[in-house]
Design a protein that fits this description.
The chain has five helices and six strands. The chain is of the alpha+beta class and about 150 residues long. The chain is globular, with a radius of gyration of 17 Å.
Length: about 150
């Protein structure tokens, strides 16, 4: 597939998720697709993960800030936003809003996402939720981060 077609697949994947259309996974993800970051394999596990994310953050949105494609890979820098109003990985709702930067790498095979990897700022995520309390030393070393 062309680089532009691969990028279009990732754009559509993002747009459909933002509309909460998880049925799109059947069309856009390989049946044996792997999410290495969350250690998921297959459509049903992906759907369960996205359902949990939506329950924890009903207004969660991916915003594409940058996209680069080469070969069968598409790299995307996302801004991820949402409000934590439901349980997420056992964490009770905090009602707090998050904004996190993440980079995702999608490998496209035959027009479907076959593999993905992601790196996100988990420290910022948990700090914004208030589940990480800085030490006094951290407050002195990084005052703007913990003000």
């Amino acid at each position: 597939m062309s680089l532009e077609k691969n990028k279009a697949i990732v754009r559509r994947f993002t747009e459909e998720f933002n509309k909460r259309n998880l049925a799109m996974l059947d069309e856009l993800m390989a049946p044996d697709g792997v999410d290495h970051t969350h250690q998921l394999r297959g459509l049903e596990n992906a759907k369960q993960f996205f359902t949990m994310l939506i329950k924890g953050f009903p207004d969660f949105q991916f915003t594409i800030e940058d996209m680069i494609a080469e070969g069968d890979k598409v790299w995307v820098r996302f801004k991820e936003t949402g409000t934590h109003t439901g349980e997420y990985f056992g964490l009770a709702p905090t009602g707090k809003k998050i904004t996190v930067t993440a980079v995702h790498n999608f490998r496209i095979v035959n027009g479907k996402v076959a593999e993905s990897f992601s790196i996100s700022d988990d420290l910022a995520f948990y700090k914004q939720l208030g589940v990480i309390e800085p030490t006094e030393k951290a407050k002195k070393l990084f005052p703007k981060d913990f003000s």
